[in-house]
Amino acid sequence: MFCQYCGAPLDVGARFCNRCGNAVPAVLIPRRSPDPAEVLNNHLQVIGILWVVYSIFHMLMGVWALVFAHYVMPEMLRMFSQQMNSNVTMPFPEFLKVFYMISFVFSMITGVVGLCAGWSLLRREQCGRTLALVAAFICLISIPFGTALAAYTLVVLLPPAAGLAYERLSRTVTPA
Fold first, then answer.
1. Residue at 80 is within a domain
2. Which residues contact 163 (CB under 8 A, 6 or more apart)?
3. For the chain, what is the mean pLDDT?
4. Which pLDDT band holds residue 107 (cuts at 50, 70, 90)?
5. Would 3 be classed as within a structural domain?
6. What's the total number of domains in the chain?
7. What residue ranges in the chain does DSSP mark as E strands?
8. Does the residue 72 lie in any domain?
9. Per-residue DSSP letter, 35
10. Run of H or E residues at 150
Protein backbone atom coordinates (compact mmCIF):
# COMPACT_ATOMS: atom_id res chain seq x y z
CA MET A 1 0.00 0.00 0.00
CA PHE A 2 1.24 3.48 -0.88
CA CYS A 3 0.53 6.96 0.47
CA GLN A 4 -2.08 8.71 -1.62
CA TYR A 5 -0.35 12.10 -1.12
CA CYS A 6 3.36 11.41 -1.74
CA GLY A 7 3.42 7.85 -3.10
CA ALA A 8 5.77 6.48 -0.41
CA PRO A 9 5.34 2.84 0.60
CA LEU A 10 3.36 2.42 3.85
CA ASP A 11 3.92 -0.10 6.61
CA VAL A 12 1.11 -2.55 7.32
CA GLY A 13 -1.30 -1.01 9.82
CA ALA A 14 0.28 2.47 9.61
CA ARG A 15 -2.00 5.36 10.48
CA PHE A 16 0.32 8.09 9.16
CA CYS A 17 2.78 8.27 6.27
CA ASN A 18 6.47 8.12 7.39
CA ARG A 19 7.54 10.59 4.67
CA CYS A 20 4.84 13.30 4.51
CA GLY A 21 3.00 12.71 7.81
CA ASN A 22 -0.49 12.71 6.30
CA ALA A 23 -3.11 10.41 7.76
CA VAL A 24 -3.68 7.13 5.99
CA PRO A 25 -7.35 6.64 5.17
CA ALA A 26 -8.88 3.76 7.07
CA VAL A 27 -9.75 0.68 5.13
CA LEU A 28 -13.43 0.01 5.42
CA ILE A 29 -14.19 -3.50 6.54
CA PRO A 30 -17.68 -4.65 5.74
CA ARG A 31 -19.56 -5.56 8.92
CA ARG A 32 -22.19 -8.20 9.11
CA SER A 33 -25.47 -7.16 10.65
CA PRO A 34 -25.98 -8.74 14.06
CA ASP A 35 -28.42 -11.58 14.46
CA PRO A 36 -31.70 -10.22 15.92
CA ALA A 37 -31.75 -13.08 18.43
CA GLU A 38 -28.28 -12.10 19.71
CA VAL A 39 -29.35 -8.48 20.16
CA LEU A 40 -32.57 -9.54 21.87
CA ASN A 41 -30.66 -11.94 24.12
CA ASN A 42 -28.56 -9.05 25.47
CA HIS A 43 -31.65 -6.94 26.11
CA LEU A 44 -33.47 -9.82 27.80
CA GLN A 45 -30.78 -10.15 30.44
CA VAL A 46 -31.04 -6.46 31.31
CA ILE A 47 -34.85 -6.35 31.19
CA GLY A 48 -35.16 -9.49 33.31
CA ILE A 49 -32.89 -8.12 36.04
CA LEU A 50 -34.66 -4.74 35.97
CA TRP A 51 -38.09 -6.37 36.34
CA VAL A 52 -36.96 -8.46 39.30
CA VAL A 53 -35.40 -5.47 41.09
CA TYR A 54 -38.28 -3.11 40.26
CA SER A 55 -40.89 -5.65 41.39
CA ILE A 56 -39.20 -6.26 44.74
CA PHE A 57 -39.07 -2.53 45.43
CA HIS A 58 -42.64 -2.10 44.21
CA MET A 59 -43.89 -4.76 46.63
CA LEU A 60 -41.88 -3.21 49.47
CA MET A 61 -43.53 0.15 48.76
CA GLY A 62 -46.95 -1.55 48.86
CA VAL A 63 -46.16 -3.02 52.26
CA TRP A 64 -44.97 0.41 53.41
CA ALA A 65 -48.27 1.96 52.26
CA LEU A 66 -50.20 -0.61 54.29
CA VAL A 67 -48.04 -0.08 57.39
CA PHE A 68 -48.34 3.68 56.99
CA ALA A 69 -52.13 3.55 56.72
CA HIS A 70 -52.68 1.26 59.69
CA TYR A 71 -49.96 2.28 62.13
CA VAL A 72 -48.04 5.44 61.28
CA MET A 73 -50.78 7.83 60.17
CA PRO A 74 -53.18 7.16 63.08
CA GLU A 75 -50.31 7.64 65.52
CA MET A 76 -49.35 10.91 63.84
CA LEU A 77 -52.95 12.13 64.11
CA ARG A 78 -53.07 11.17 67.80
CA MET A 79 -49.83 13.07 68.46
CA PHE A 80 -51.13 16.08 66.52
CA SER A 81 -54.30 16.11 68.64
CA GLN A 82 -52.22 16.03 71.81
CA GLN A 83 -50.10 18.96 70.65
CA MET A 84 -53.23 20.95 69.91
CA ASN A 85 -54.37 20.29 73.51
CA SER A 86 -57.47 18.63 72.23
CA ASN A 87 -59.09 15.76 74.06
CA VAL A 88 -60.64 14.54 70.83
CA THR A 89 -58.38 12.41 68.68
CA MET A 90 -58.67 13.18 65.02
CA PRO A 91 -59.93 10.10 63.19
CA PHE A 92 -58.02 8.78 60.22
CA PRO A 93 -60.33 9.25 57.24
CA GLU A 94 -61.71 5.94 56.04
CA PHE A 95 -61.34 6.84 52.38
CA LEU A 96 -57.58 7.15 52.91
CA LYS A 97 -57.48 3.68 54.43
CA VAL A 98 -59.29 2.39 51.36
CA PHE A 99 -56.89 4.30 49.11
CA TYR A 100 -53.85 2.82 50.85
CA MET A 101 -55.36 -0.67 50.74
CA ILE A 102 -55.98 -0.36 47.00
CA SER A 103 -52.42 0.89 46.61
CA PHE A 104 -51.17 -2.15 48.53
CA VAL A 105 -53.18 -4.59 46.40
CA PHE A 106 -52.04 -2.90 43.16
CA SER A 107 -48.41 -3.02 44.30
CA MET A 108 -48.63 -6.69 45.20
CA ILE A 109 -50.31 -7.69 41.93
CA THR A 110 -47.92 -5.72 39.75
CA GLY A 111 -44.98 -6.85 41.86
CA VAL A 112 -45.84 -10.53 41.49
CA VAL A 113 -46.49 -10.21 37.74
CA GLY A 114 -43.24 -8.26 37.27
CA LEU A 115 -41.28 -10.75 39.37
CA CYS A 116 -42.63 -13.67 37.36
CA ALA A 117 -41.93 -11.79 34.11
CA GLY A 118 -38.35 -10.99 35.10
CA TRP A 119 -37.65 -14.54 36.24
CA SER A 120 -39.19 -15.98 33.07
CA LEU A 121 -37.16 -13.64 30.87
CA LEU A 122 -33.95 -14.58 32.65
CA ARG A 123 -34.72 -18.27 32.12
CA ARG A 124 -35.97 -17.66 28.53
CA GLU A 125 -39.24 -19.46 29.25
CA GLN A 126 -42.00 -19.47 26.64
CA CYS A 127 -44.34 -17.30 28.74
CA GLY A 128 -41.65 -14.71 29.57
CA ARG A 129 -42.32 -12.33 26.71
CA THR A 130 -46.07 -12.36 27.28
CA LEU A 131 -45.71 -11.81 31.03
CA ALA A 132 -43.25 -8.97 30.46
CA LEU A 133 -45.62 -7.27 28.02
CA VAL A 134 -48.54 -7.61 30.46
CA ALA A 135 -46.38 -6.22 33.30
CA ALA A 136 -45.26 -3.38 31.04
CA PHE A 137 -48.80 -2.36 30.16
CA ILE A 138 -49.83 -2.48 33.83
CA CYS A 139 -46.80 -0.49 35.03
CA LEU A 140 -47.06 2.27 32.44
CA ILE A 141 -48.94 4.33 35.03
CA SER A 142 -46.25 3.89 37.71
CA ILE A 143 -44.35 7.12 37.10
CA PRO A 144 -41.34 7.47 36.74
CA PHE A 145 -39.54 4.12 37.09
CA GLY A 146 -42.42 1.87 36.09
CA THR A 147 -43.08 4.00 33.04
CA ALA A 148 -39.43 3.95 31.99
CA LEU A 149 -39.10 0.19 32.45
CA ALA A 150 -42.41 -0.41 30.69
CA ALA A 151 -41.36 1.74 27.74
CA TYR A 152 -38.01 -0.07 27.46
CA THR A 153 -39.78 -3.44 27.64
CA LEU A 154 -42.37 -2.47 25.03
CA VAL A 155 -39.79 -1.07 22.61
CA VAL A 156 -37.69 -4.23 22.82
CA LEU A 157 -40.33 -6.97 23.09
CA LEU A 158 -43.42 -5.67 21.27
CA PRO A 159 -42.27 -5.76 17.61
CA PRO A 160 -43.24 -8.92 15.72
CA ALA A 161 -39.58 -9.61 14.89
CA ALA A 162 -38.85 -9.69 18.64
CA GLY A 163 -41.57 -12.31 19.06
CA LEU A 164 -39.96 -14.55 16.48
CA ALA A 165 -36.49 -14.04 17.94
CA TYR A 166 -37.76 -14.72 21.48
CA GLU A 167 -39.47 -17.89 20.34
CA ARG A 168 -36.23 -19.05 18.77
CA LEU A 169 -34.29 -18.22 21.95
CA SER A 170 -36.79 -19.96 24.21
CA ARG A 171 -36.50 -23.15 22.16
CA THR A 172 -32.69 -23.21 22.25
CA VAL A 173 -32.18 -22.47 25.96
CA THR A 174 -32.73 -25.39 28.29
CA PRO A 175 -33.95 -24.58 31.80
CA ALA A 176 -31.44 -25.12 34.60
1. yes
2. 129, 157
3. 86
4. very high
5. no
6. 1
7. none
8. yes
9. P
10. helix 145-157
